[in-house]
Amino acid sequence: MVERYALEPLKSLWTLKAQYERWLEVELAVVEAYEQVGIAPKGTAEEIRKKAFIDVDDILATEQVVDHDVIAFIKSVTKNMGDEARYFHYGLTSSDVVDTANSLVLIRATDIILESMEKLRLVLYEKALQYKTLPTIGRTHGVHAEPTSFGLKFLSWYAELLRDIERLKRVREEIAVGKLSGAVGNYANISPEVEKIALEKLGLKPTPVATQVISRDYIAHLLATFAIIAGLIERIAIEIRHLQRTEVLEAMEPFKEGQRGSSAMPHKKNPILCERLTGMARLMRSYAQVAFENMALWHERDISHSSAERYILPDSTMTIYYMLEKARYLIENLRVFEEKVKKNIDITQGLVYSQRILLALVEAGMSREEAYTLVQKYALECWETGESFKERLRSDEKISQLITEEKFEELFKPDYYLKNIDKIYERFEKK
C-alpha cells in the first residue's frame, strides 16, 4: 500500500505483527476446542497463551531458512513452550489458519468501512436538504437539458450509498466463515465438532464445503462490492470535476490555506482530490478483477491466489476506506456558488424551456408534430444566432394567439421544475 494513502485504523490491521496475532488467535481457538472435547488437557490453551511470543524479526529470519511463512510462525511462536506445544497446529494445515485469519481481518476491516459509509451517508443527506430548493440546470450528454434541484445530485448519491451499505452488510455476513478441516477439507485429522467449537469462539461459521482452502467466491463478492462503492465515489468526483470547470464553476472542492495548485501558474485551483479518487476507483475495479481470477484453482488447491491476495486484500480495504474518508471531507467542505448555479440556467437564452413551450402548444390544440417542428425550428435558429429563444417565440403570431402573455411568462420560470421535489425527498424521510 502507498503510505500516503494508508489511514488508521485500517493500516494497523495489515501489519505483519497483526497478521501473526490473528494466526495465533486461530490456533488458540482450536486448542481451546480440543480441551473442550477432551483431546488436549485442561489448561493447555492458557499455557500456550502465556508462553507464545510473537517476534516478527525471528519469524522472518526463520522463514528465510524454511521458505514457508506458517511453518516459520509455528517454529518461532512455540520456542518457549513445553509439552503443550504438541497441540499447537494439531490436525491443521496452513490454509486452515491463513484463510480463517483472513476472514477475521476482512470482517474487522469491513466493520470499519461500514462506519465510514454511515458518516458519509449523513453528510450527503445534510447537503441534499441544504440545496433541495436551489434550481440548477440539468445536463444530459453534457448539454443543458432542463432545470432541476441542485439537492437532487446529493440525494441521488445518498440513495446509491444506502444500497451500497446494504450490499456490504450482506457480504459481511457472507464472509464470516472459517475453515478448520485439514489438508484437503475432509476432516481426516480434525473433527467437524472441533471446527464448529473453534469457529464459534472466533465469531465465524464453518464454510459448508472446503478444499484445502475456502472457496474464493467470498472474496470476489466482497471486492466486487468494494468496486461498486468506489464507482459511486468516482461518480461524485466526476460531477464535481465538471462543476469546477472554469466555464461552469458552480462548485469547487476545498482549497486549503497555503495550498498551491500549480508549480507554474499561481492562479490554479485544480480538482486534485476528485481526480485522485477517480484514479483510485480504477484500482478498485482492478482488485475485483484479480479476485475473480483467483476463484479457479487447480484441484483441491494451488497457491496462484496467494501472492495476489497479499496485494489485493490490504490494498483494497485500505483504498476504499481512504476513498470514503476523503469523499466525506470533500462533501463536507464543498464550495457551492449558488448565484452561479442560478445564472447558468440562462446561458442558452431560454432554450431549456423548449419542452414547456411544446406542451403548452399541444394543450392549446396544436398537434404534437406541428408543435415540435415549430419549436425546434426556432430553437435551432437560436442555437446558431445566440438570440433569445423567449423573444423569438414571442414574435411568432401563431404562438401568441395560442398562449397568453401571462401564461407565456410562466413557461420560463425554473421553479416549475421543483414542484414534485418534495415527493422524491419523502421517500427517504425514514432512512
From TrEMBL:
- Ranges of residues in domain Adenylosuccinate lyase C-terminal: 349-429
Q: Which GO terms describe its molecular function?
A: (S)-2-(5-amino-1-(5-phospho-D-ribosyl)imidazole-4-carboxamido) succinate lyase (fumarate-forming) activity; N6-(1,2-dicarboxyethyl)AMP AMP-lyase (fumarate-forming) activity
Gene Ontology CC, one term:
cytosol
Which top EC class applies here?
Answer: lyase
Pathway participation:
Purine metabolism; IMP biosynthesis via de novo pathway; 5-amino-1-(5-phospho-D-ribosyl)imidazole-4-carboxamide from 5-amino-1-(5-phospho-D-ribosyl)imidazole-4-carboxylate: step 2/2; Purine metabolism; AMP biosynthesis via de novo pathway; AMP from IMP: step 2/2
Which Enzyme Commission numbers does its entry carry?
4.3.2.2
Q: Which SUPFAM superfamilies match?
A: L-aspartase-like (SSF48557)
- Is Lyase found in the keyword set? yes
InterPro entries membership: AdenyloSucc_lyase_C, Fumarase/histidase_N, Fumarate_lyase_CS, Fumarate_lyase_fam, Fumarate_lyase_N, L-Aspartase-like, Pur_lyase
Q: Name one Pfam family in it.
A: Lyase_1
Q: Which family does it belong to?
A: Belongs to the lyase 1 family. Adenylosuccinate lyase subfamily.
User: Per its record, how is this protein called by name?
Assistant: Adenylosuccinate lyase
Q: Please give the organism.
A: Fervidobacterium pennivorans (strain DSM 9078 / Ven5)
